[in-house]
Amino acid sequence: MNKGSSLKKVVLMPPNWLGDVILAQPALRSLCLQHQDVEIAVFGRGWLKELLPFLNLNHPNIHVVDDIPKRSDAVFLFPNSLRSALQAFRSRAKKRIGYRRDGRSLLLTHAYKSRIDLKHEHHRGYYLDMLRQYGLDTPLDEVELIAPQSIQAQAVALLKEKGIDPAKFICIAPGAQFGGAKRYPAESYNHVLVQLSKDGWHVVTLGTDAERDIASQCLLDVSGQQWNAAGETSLTQALALVSVAKLVLCNDSGLMHVAAGLGVPTVCMFGATDPARTSPSGKRVKLLYQPADCSPCLKRECEVKGQPCMKNITPDMVYQACEGFLES
């Protein structure tokens, strides 16, 4: 069933984290596909303006707004927060569609109970099921991102400026916004990068300014050409660099989902989190998961000495997974 015919102005409120937005992309794309003749305003975090060109939503009249428009025909709330429901309610939208979480049911006109168990089932299905309960078709269930050629060209120029060969470089994203439990140890990354550098690969580390020190630890004793870009790029530049990389090596993070969704060869390490819930969507992904007795704990910081879930994934395992992509 298609409920788009009576709507003229729709507001999308995507999730609040980069990785979650990518996991919601099949739902966002399905929604846009069925609302081609309406104006779509995207409201949320400021960085959505940089992310939107990569999301492949394929809509002729979609734009990011700084304030939620008043009296729209419908607001689709992908965040579960009470705050997002209050914002939608105050906008006086005719329809306010979302999950009944955090005591916000009375603020929504269409408040659905989740049929997806987020402790065991994948988050992509969670976002898609909200649309299904509303009555929309969901023909797309895999993440498919794009990178505009003009932005890729800028990334290639930036690499050359930094002395990095665009044909021989890999991206490393050693951070994780959620917490330290999701991070593969810097010393283990370092073992892998030293070997990859000896093989002739140039290394670029990505992340926020807060992750710059971690990135520096990963690059210790790496003899080949390198650039610690953590904290030095805009989000657009980081996404563009990922899009032209020959490989992305990372933790369970937002950039992991971006790389996989762009079809870039992606090697990712899981420990505290559960691949059944947040694995990346892509055809060129090697997921490494060697759970310990305490895995997946879903905690921000590891409480077990030695972080065994990550220690079980040896640098040799990671290097071999990288080699499998780089030699093909």
Number of domains: 2
Q: Can you give the mean pLDDT? A: 94
Q: What global shape is seen? A: globular
The N- and C-terminal alpha carbons lie at a distance of: 44 Å
- Count helical runs: 13
Rg, Å, rounded: 20 Å
In which order are the strands of the major sheet placed? 3-2-1-4-5-6
* Share in helix: 25-40%
Per CATH, which architecture of the largest domain? 3-Layer(aba) Sandwich
SSE order: EHHEHEEHEEHHEHEHEHEHEHEHH
Q: Write down the CATH class of the largest domain.
A: Alpha Beta
| Uncertain residue ranges | none
Helix-and-strand structural type = alpha/beta
CATH fold title of the largest domain = Rossmann fold
Number of E-state strands: 12
CATH superfamily of the largest domain: Glycogen Phosphorylase B
Question: Main beta sheet: strand number and arrangement?
Answer: 6 strands, parallel
Beta-strand content bin:
15-25%
